[in-house]
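Suppose you are handed a protein chain with no further information: no name, no annotation, nothing but its sequence. What can you learn? This example shows the usual starting point.
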Amino acid sequence: MEKKKFDYKENLFILINRVVFGVLFLVSLFLLIFSFYPFGNYKVVDDSGKIISNSTGEYSTAKITVTLNHKANDAYITIKFYGEDGKYVDDSFEHFFFNGKKTASVDVYGVSLKAVSYSIDPAIDADNTNYALLLVSVFVLLISLTFFLCSLMLNFKIYSVDGKEVVVYAGFYNHYIKVDGETVDEHKTLTSFVPIVLSTTLGESKISVSISTMNRITVKVNDKMIRPSPKMKENN
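A reasonable first move is to predict its three-dimensional structure. Written in structure tokens, the prediction is:
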């Protein structure tokens, strides 16, 4: 008589969990590192200026709008203003905070400017960290690492007792014994501070299972410890 073959969904479940959370951990780790990576050096790609004089000619306001090559998380730039005669007038220290465009202005009293020139300090002190990506990657990293470590504790063993196939599974929540595909004892809990004990009887054989707090499985038949079936090698 041909022996019935059973579908070991527990083994597949463990494998999927380890692969999924392992991949999530690696991806989040990559994103965490990438969040600190500078997206190239900051530089000015566009600037435009204008002069606004009041009606009495008492003062003039020189304005310039500076655009960077991409949005800066935290950058600083110095803009120096000069009059028609080329003499230094004033400067403006601008802070780019999660933006890539700033308008700087200076007021010049006592004269009515007709033209203005300016220079932009090429040294831009910037924090290249992508904080949004950093926060998301840290959150996913912690969650995926937690579940990946938990998935490493998932356990699944196959035993042969009196010609019957006995499957013992220790999962996140479910812990049970199956005999030839039928569940004969189970215990459901997310956390246990003491070993979980399961048992069943096959004819003259009393099967007792102890699952430790780290999901380590120990099986005894009539008070004698037995080892998993060689079939475990075929299914792992």
